[in-house]
Amino acid sequence: MAGGSAFSRFLDAFAAACYRVRRSALARWAFIGLAVISLGLALFSRPGAVENQAIRDSAVGEISISSLRTYVRVIGVLNPSGAYRTQYALGNINLYGSRFVPFVSPNSLDVVYVIDENLPNAAADATITLVAQVVEGVGQQPPLYLQIGYPPNVVLANVLARLGMLLLLALMVIALVAWLVERFDYAVPLPWSAPQNVANAPALLWFGELGRQFNDTYIRSQPAQFNATPHEARFEAVEPRGLWSVSVRRVKWVQLFDVATPYGGMPAARLHFEDERGLQRRGVIAANSSQSRDAVLRVLSLIR
After folding, report:
1. 167 pLDDT exceeds 70?
2. Pair 198, 263 in one domain
3. Residues 198 and 108 in one domain
4. Residue 6: predicted pLDDT
5. Confidence band (pLDDT; 50, 70, 90) for 3?
6. Average pLDDT along the chain
7. How many structural domains compose the chain?
8. Residues above pLDDT 90, as percent of the chain
9. Contact 153, 161 (CB under 8 A)
10. Per-residue pLDDT tens for 150-163?
11. Same domain for 61 and 110?
12. Which residue range is the domain that position 278 belongs to?
C-alpha cells in the first residue's frame, strides 16, 4: 500500500508539473526554441556525401571533369600576374565578380585556376600545397577551378542530425503526453483501485476548467465545497470563499475512476455537464471516500 501511495504521489507530481509548464510562457518559448534547434540539427544530415570526404593526392594535369566535387591535394605555384576577374556589363556599369588565379604545376605547363578565397600568403614563385574541392565553373568562370577548403566532417554532421531527430521525437512525445494529461483535466487515473476512505484528504477536490467568467482558467486538486438546489449545483472554493466556482445545470454522463492526488489515490468521477449558460463543460471531482463521491453524484442526478 505504501508503494502504491508513493506511485500515486509521483503521478500527481507529474500532472502538477505538466500543469505548471503548460501555463508558463518561458516553458512555451523554451519548447519552441528546442524545436527550432532540433530542426536545424536535422538539416546537418548529409546522406551519400561520405564518399566525397577523402582527399586525393593529384597532379595539376590529372584534374578533369571526373574530379568534380572531390577534394584534391595538389602542388604548384600561384601566378597572380595571370589572374582575371569575371565582369558583367549593366548598361554603362561594369559589375565585377570573382577573381581566379592560375595555379601552375612546377614540373609541367599544366594549369588549373583557383578562386581567390582563402589563398595562402606565399612568396612569388614559391611552391605550395593546396587542399581544395574541384568545382565546375559557369559563364565567364573557368570550366573547372579549385575552391580551397577541407571537406566537411560528415560523420559529425550526421551525428548532429541524428541528435536533432531524437530531440524532435522527444519533444513530440512530451507534447503528446502533455496534451493527454490536459485532456484528463490534469487528473491522472490510477491503474489500480484507491482506498475507499482517505482520512488525511479534504472532503472534496475539483480538477478542471472554471469557465468564461474566470477566463477559462484551469485549476487542479483544489479543495471544494458542494452546494445544490433543485435546479443547480455549485462547486466552490473553500477558502477564500468566492475565489472560484463552477455551476452544474445538467449532468450528461459520469465516468467513475480512481485518481492520483497529493494525498494518495482517491475515489473520483469525471463529469460532462452543462453549466449555467448551457455550455458543454467537463471536470473531475475526487472525494475522501467512495460514499461521499456517490452521495454527490446522487444529488447531481436529481438536478433538473
Report:
1. yes
2. yes
3. no
4. 79
5. very low
6. 86
7. 3
8. 39
9. no
10. 887 666 777 888 88
11. yes
12. 186-302
- Does residue 48 surpass a pLDDT of 60? no
pLDDT at 130: 93
**Nearest CA to 189 among 114, 113, 284?**
284
Do both 123 and 166 map to the same domain? Answer: no
Confidence of residue 44 (pLDDT cuts 50, 70, 90): low
Q: What is the CATH number of the domain that holds 230?
A: 2.30.29
Provide the edge-to-edge strand list for the sheet that holds 280-287: 245-248, 233-237, 218-228, 204-209, 280-287, 264-274, 250-261
Q: What is the pLDDT of residues 56-67, one digit of tens each?
A: 899 999 999 988
* Burial call 144-159: b when 16+ CB within 10 Å, e when fewer: bbbeeeeeeebeebbe
| Mean local confidence (pLDDT), 258-280 | 90
Per-position b or e across 190-202, b if 16+ CB within 10 A of its CB: beeebbeebeebb
Between CA 230 and CA 233 the distance in angstroms is: 8
Mark whether 266 and 292 lie in a shared domain. yes
Residue 265 · residue 195 · CB < 8 Å: yes
Determine the Cα–Cα distance for residues 248 and 265; give it in Å rounded to an integer. Answer: 25
Residues 197, 293, single domain; the answer is yes
- Dihedral angle sign, alpha carbons of residues 59, 63, 66, 68: positive
pLDDT at 198: 77
The residues pairing with 145 across neighbouring beta strands, listed in sequence order, are: 113, 135
Residue given cell 588565379 in the structure block: 101
Do 156 and 195 reside in the same domain of the chain? no
CB burial of residue 264 (10 Å; 0-12, 13-18, 19+): buried
The answer to whether residues 19 and 185 touch, using CB atoms and an 8 Å cutoff, is: no
